[in-house]
Amino acid sequence: MNRDFMRKNDISVEDDDSSVFMYVLTSIYMYLFIIILAIVMAVNSMASSWEKDIMGAITVQIIPVESDDKHIDVDKTQELVNDVLHYMENVSGIETVRVLDTKTVEKLMTPWLGNKVDISLLPIPQLLDVQLKKDAEINYDEITRGLHKVSPNASIDNHRLWLNKLIKFASSLRNIALTVLFMVILICAFSIYYSARTSLGININSIEILHLVGAYDDYIARQYARNYAKIGFFSGIIGLMFAVPCILLIGKYGLSTGSGLLSGASLSGTAWFFIMMTPLFSYGYAMVTSYYTVRKSLEKMF
Question: Are β-strands 57-62 and 126-132 bridged in parallel, bridged antiparallel, or unpaired?
């Protein structure tokens, strides 16, 4: 065959009734694919943020000292805070230590107690935010023993127990999303497969004529691949147009909850790059799937 013949579009899937079905179906698949892909990348970002922020810090809490009349002894409590602060500043591997002010503590407690409770009247522990040096090896047992010598009212929380639970939760959520993502890809492949097989049946006469004039199975398969690549690309754009506003809306309402845990679930520039490239993925995926479907089908038919 000459080159001009090979460039002809002898078979057009868009002339079939199945083309509209494939545009709609592939657009829905790509919409779901992009949403789930964004969820996977956001969960990864959230888990990394948790590990970076929480594993690099510890919290020291100091129970307020009560006077004989069961009220908080402000002076003794402050003296105790100063002693603990001085001790923590001299521990190896610690970068900075700061006492959380009353407003910060109230802000942390408000989601749990509400705005109607006067937190200043409660025996809220004094909190010290301790930032660790990068790759510092901390002996928590030794620090705990040292704190108890300074004051039995002081205790340390390295967040490892509940962080491990959060990491397991994020990992489970990511695995579920990846499973759904794989299912969407697989179902999309089956849709392309059955659509291509249906189109082969519809265009069987044209295919037989092409065979008679010397067309090879590879040529016919590339004709289908070209058509399905077009469907995949434009369906990817349609899916992207609907998915991006949803992602932005979910991100907006997620951050508006005020939860510090969700603040790390953001999409980086790299993540957005992959999201914007999904029409190209859809283009290549539809092209390759349809090509091999038609090639294998033609080998069995003729």
Answer: antiparallel
